[in-house]
Amino acid sequence: MFATFQFQELIDRGLQEDIGTGDLSTSIMPEDLTGFAKIYAKQKGVVAGLLIAEQVFQRVDPRICVRRLFKEGDEVEVGGVVLGLSGPISSILQGERTALNFLQHLSGIATATKRAVDQVEGLSVRIVDTRKTLAGWRTLQKYAVRVGGGKNHRFGLYDSVMLKDNHLAAVGGLTEAVHRIKAQVGHMTKIEVECETIEQVQEAVACGVDVIMLDNMDLVTMREAVLYIDRRALVEASGGMLEEHLREVAETGVDLISMGALTHSVQALDFSLDLGDIKALTRASWKRNNL
């Protein structure tokens, strides 16, 4: 879980770019027009982002009351009402799009992750994300992966070492790169190396790295690599991992399957907001608010 105050700046930025100097459309409404609204699912999926959506409405107008009808990680059917709202109608409508943007995107990630996790059910492999995230959204996107049952890879360049092809090329090869990094980081820092061939896998094992990434390997080569590594390091499969092929990749014996698609190209889960009962205004009230 997380504290929503961490994302206040992101929420404010979203509201500012949407409302700007003022909502022209809701200017037709009297200020004391109140009522109810519901946010419901138009697709089946896993719900994530309810807390952020609630915070959006509260930021627009503290008078908006929000009732959560589902929990994070719950599966919702088409038509399921996930949030109930009451308060000033103009304020509810001003927060609508920003709240839905958060809810739809994060629920889309959680839903895609759940589908991936279901593909490898019963096998001892973890579905993990990558750093292929939207600027400013990484913590939220990785949170949504966890809601969907996946696990997080490193959060950034600062919390673990991953030596990729460009790092190896820049210093003259895999062995040299590993020796250099071991001389710089502490013993508690994990070291992962990206390998594209069996020869690189053998070199990485000889260097004593913690994690070996099998990058864009076919299934035959992947099985050979897993057998050679023989639990001397964690094994991660990466590169173009498609949902329909996850189980056969998992059956090679890898420990992790990393999927950039969980965050960089996920399809949003569709939600909509509909107004319910609206408090009737007297003629005098309408006239007073339109003077």
Strand order of the largest sheet: 6-11-10-9-8-7
Separation of the first and last Cα atoms = 48 Å
CATH class of the largest domain: Alpha Beta
| Number of discrete helical segments | 11
Total number of domains:
2
| Integer-rounded radius of gyration | 24 Å
Fourth-level CATH superfamily of the largest domain: Aldolase class I
What is the beta-strand fraction? 15-25%
Question: Which structural class fits the helix and strand makeup?
Answer: alpha/beta
What is the string of helix and strand elements? HEEHEEEHEHEHHEHEHEHEHEH
- What does the average pLDDT come to? 94
Query: Architecture of the largest domain, according to CATH?
Result: Alpha-Beta Barrel
Largest sheet: 6 strands, parallel
* Overall 3D shape: elongated
Percent of residues in helical segments? 40-55%
